[in-house]
Amino acid sequence: MTRYQTTTLPNGVTVATAALPHRNSVCVGLWVGVGGRHEPADVSGISHFIEHMLFKGTKGRSAEQISQSVEGLGGYLNAFTSEDHTCFYARVVADRCNDVLEVLFDMFLRSRFDDEDIAKERNVIREELAMYYDQPQQYVHELLNQVQWPDQPLGRPLAGSEATLKRIRRPQFMAYLDRCYVSEATLVCAAGAVDHDALVAEVSKLSKRCRPGKKPDFTPASHPRTQPGIRLDTRKTSQAQLALGIRTVSRRDPRRYALRLLNALVGETMSSRLFVELRENLGLAYDIHSSLSFFEDTGDLVISAGLDADNVEKALKLILRELKRLANKPVGTAELRRAKDYVIGQMDLNLEGTENHMMTIGEQILGWGQITPPDEVARRLRAVRPSDVRRAMEDFLKPERLSLALVSPLKNGGVLEKHLGRVST
Fold first, then answer.
1. pLDDT digits (tens, 9 = 90+) for 374-388
2. 51 an active-site residue?
3. What gap in Å lies between CA 383 and CA 200, rounded to an integer?
4. One of 39, 51, 355, 363 is an active-site residue; which one?
5. Which of 201, 254, 291, 321 is the most buried (most CB within 10 A)?
């Protein structure tokens, strides 16, 4: 049985572990509770830029030595930036945990931010921006964020823009690190063959140089719109890419459990309603799926599809029709049971791996301030009733909560916007 433990050090750094005694490896992550939401508009993308720069060299290691320090142990090193947080992590055999933890803290506290490296990495991120634009199935989600969260951090690309990349220089990095990469925003978590007390003792030594300070605040999401929002990127493409967003609730709202099951029913699986109807029965889309995001103060359910441009209106009407069905009629008990079995089964399978387990407890600590054991999550999912799912869809399927983004040859979205405006149940 997994044992979860959490300790907050006197300097404010938190240590969390999931002990999996039958594993031979450990995945350890150094998290900071800052991401795209915390950035001023003029340096948008700086969190992602910092993620890149921490791999470019420290006062004691070159970029090559950083990777060799982990890969030379047979380990794996990576990082990511989200709207809420940034994480640097490594997976290694259990008895080398302290070695990779020292590398992570070296990156975190002693990175050089050399002017020449900054200039090189700026060009790398420019290429990353160009890559996203050239991939419509990804770029359509950036468009959706822009229309769903207009003129606010959640609506800006995590990698920033050409304009903001040009502004970010070493002084901006140093000021941002001093303000945001502070002890109370720092979390070390590990999953696998790990001893909690031993990890706490090691982190206590390594974190002595952490900058003191409180976890930074973010700009709350605002929702001023009273009508559906739509954004088109008109270009010659062989396939249209569609993303329909439904603004929902925060990660703290109890309706999130009904939404997790609703997502499975709508489009998360090959047996979900939209996949069966639009792909299997009608052949309108090669790819159609749905996904959920939860933040501290808001969230969304997103339905994505790749299809022939001539089928966009028909597909949108069918998607909205299926959502209305879920809002008007409780799902059958057998269908809901299958959705519960799927979501709980996927959660259990994900927690088999030390990396996914580390990610789960890291997100829970930074998002909720505590770890919710998997059996408690499963209990709450099992308790969801058909009426709860119907009510969740009814609560959120409203014109002012809908946003649509489209990358396609289509030049006018007026007809599509009318369909979005007629969804009220």
1. 999 999 999 999 999
2. yes
3. 36
4. 51
5. 291
